[in-house]
Amino acid sequence: MHDLLTWVQSLPTLWIYLVAALIVAGETAVIFGLLVPGEATLLLVGFLTYNGTLRLGPALLAMIVAAVAGDGLAFRAGRRYGPRLRAGLGHRVGPERWGRADAMLARLGGRGVFAARWVAFARTLVPRLAGAAGMPYRRFVLWNLAGVVTWVGGSVLLGHLAGESYDTVSRLLGRATGAALVLLAGLLAVVLAGRWLGRNPDPVRALLSRAGALPPVRWLTARYGVLFFLVAMRVGPAWTLLLNLAAGLLLLFAAGLAIAGLLAVAVRNSGLAALDDAVAGWFAARRTPDAADVTAVVVSVVRGSVLILLVALVAAVLAWRSRPWRTDLLSVVGTAGAFVPLVVLAVVAELTGPHGGGGSAPLPTQNAVVAASFCTLAWLVSRGARWPVAVAAWTTAAAGVLGVGGARLYLGLDTASGSAAAVLLGVLWTVVFMVAWATRDRAVRELEQPVDHAQPSSEGHRSPVEPC
């Protein structure tokens, strides 16, 4: 790396600007970023501004202009060749799925363009997808410019401030990009799992019905179907419901283990652990006996078990005031039994961390349960409430999560990387049920929509509501 830097510094300044700009623009314009992400180039540019080879202001301006130009070319390519893509290989996807993708991009809009700028590979493809989906260029260019300025500026300034630590920062940033991709894949899996749970609020019966289509199960049903029926009658509906809920909780437990394992891998490979000692030292230097005593009292009061009891109380009150709910798993964990997933999460977090806990735990149990409890409370309170109440509930939840997590860092009970992983686990755990509940509510509303029977027979199957 030292020889490479020496060779780059020997080049004419104009050539350095030109080559760096072409790499940054080509990352999206010619899909070069699928092979080599552009963070390394921007970090190198920042390092060259640190040692005086380049000037910081012109370097920032040149990289921003190059990134915007590359994204603009990619957007135009998506707009021009998008219909050809759908008519060619894309016809295998089907018009219904294309329509869903267009609707999703329309809902996310510029926020998706802004966020994609910070993720390798995603920033290479999203401009083309936005152009192909017909997003207005004015909306795209404003959100994309915001993403480019923050991403380019942050990367160049990081390389400039890193100075002689360029090699370390470049390696850690590359690992963080891979971890971000893993987290995005995990978030997509969480959302898909939530949507499946929303469409199948009784997951055990749904899985059993699909298993019933398998040849061995069909043979057993055909041969011993009467025996199974007699056993079911003997068990009775009450015990059947309890067994079904118990099997559903086992599925949730398995899902929790999968999410916790994914987060552990992402955090372990993100480079966050390199900051643990620095963060711990910063808090230790500001710790005083009196403040530590007060903080310890707060942490002991606002802990997972107390918050789980609070969730149980709030859920019981809200369930008593609401309309009757169904006896499937999603209805139970989304109303009076909202505390049950928190208990499952506590067991999962305890199992995924080393025995005995302590500051070295990769997934501190308290932070995970506290984050999930605050998010669950905000979800229960804001569901169906007016937007000021919803904003206040979620703001309080965010403040509670950050406050408890910061207090535990201040006391030295957890590490920064462990706290980040635990909070993500708690938030993603709540997201599963939020997405499931929203999916089920949307499906119920669609079923309850009145059908206009006065329409002609040729339009009898058309929905009275236009798709979003």
Characterise this structure:
- One of its GO terms (cellular component) is plasma membrane.
- This is Undecaprenyl-diphosphatase.
- Keywords: Cell membrane, Membrane, Transmembrane, Transmembrane helix.
- It is a multi-pass membrane protein.
- With 468 residues, the chain is mainly alpha-helical.
- It has 2 domains: 185 residues, no CATH class; 208 residues.
- It is built from 20 helices and no strands.
- The two termini are 52 Å apart.
Mean pLDDT: 75
Distance between the first and last residues' Cα = 52 Å
Q: Which structural category fits the helices and strands?
A: mainly alpha
Helix-strand string:
HHHHHHHHHHHHHHHHHHHH
Q: What is the count of structural domains?
A: 2
What's the shape?
A: globular
- Biggest sheet character: none
Beta-strand content:
under 5%
Radius of gyration: 27 Å
Oligomer: single chain
Region (Disordered): 449-468
Family: Belongs to the DedA family.
Membrane topology: Multi-pass membrane protein
Biased composition (Basic and acidic residues): 459-468
